[in-house]
Amino acid sequence: KTPAMKTALAQLFSKICTHLHQMPRTRACILEMHCLDLMLKKNPWMISQWHIDSLLATVTIMTARARTPPPPDIFTCHCRLLGTVLALHRAKLGGRYHLLLSALQGLLRQLFTPYGPHRTPPPLLTATHASAYARLLTSLCDPSVSAVTRARGRQRAELNDATKKARAIAGQHLQYLLMEFCACQLRGRMEPAVRAALDPGLYAVLDAMGPEVMRTVNAALEVGGRAIFKVVYEDYRRFGRWKGG
């Protein structure tokens, strides 16, 4: 953990993010994102706020430029990277939820097949990929105590308060993800198995939002989106409501 080593690893992380903007071939993308994931896990001491910001922007750029549907392995790598950030570097997301939201919205759009005049090929992304994405939403909306705070010796009440605060912040920002889901439903289709795998994540978002934010979402949507939101909310009340929310 010498200063020289920290500088070298920090520069490597930045160079990989920059190279990923150029959308190299799938195999190279996978290897480079695997390197990023290893550095996030094995060398957290060299990860700065700038690195997290750069990584979130990189995922957003890649999802925006990707063809539809994207290579399944790339989607999996994106979910793994964001999952590692949520588990080990969540403290650096404060004030950066707009970056995380953009990345999540980009991944969500890839689970849909846009409507078009021509017959579309079968989707490459399956329920397995939707489950990985749903786990991201669950981790974000229902974080573990260790993900929220690394401090030792805290009282249980303090830890519970930190978890509740993290859930509330996630719910405030993820209302826009739910709006994006409703918009995507109007523009494309999602396979039933993919939707079933995604539902636990949507229910976690609704659980974190609370009644007031739900009313805000409903008021902000147009007629078509409001009808979709109503179906999602009714399913949530029947199948997904937990924690007494």
Describe this structure in words.
There is one protein chain. With 245 residues, this protein is mostly helical. The protein is 74% helix and 2% strand. The protein contains 10 helices and 2 strands; from the N terminus they run H-H-H-H-H-E-H-H-H-E-H-H. Helix 2 packs parallel to helix 4 (72-88) and helix 6 crosses helix 9 (192-220). The longest helix is centred in the last third of the chain and has 32 residues, at 156-187. The termini are far apart. 31% of the residues are buried. The model has no long low-confidence stretch (mean pLDDT 88).
* Largest beta-sheet details: 2 strands, antiparallel
Total number of helices:
10
Per DSSP E runs of 2 or more residues, the count of β-strands stands at: 2
Instruction: Using the CA coordinates, give the radius of gyration.
Output: 19 Å
Instruction: Estimate the global geometry from the Cα principal axes.
Output: globular
What is the topology, as strand order, of the major beta sheet? 1-2
Mean pLDDT: 88
Q: What would you call the structural class?
A: mainly alpha
Q: Helix and strand succession?
A: HHHHHEHHHEHH
Q: Residue share in helices?
A: over 70%
Beta percentage is: under 5%
Low-confidence stretches: none
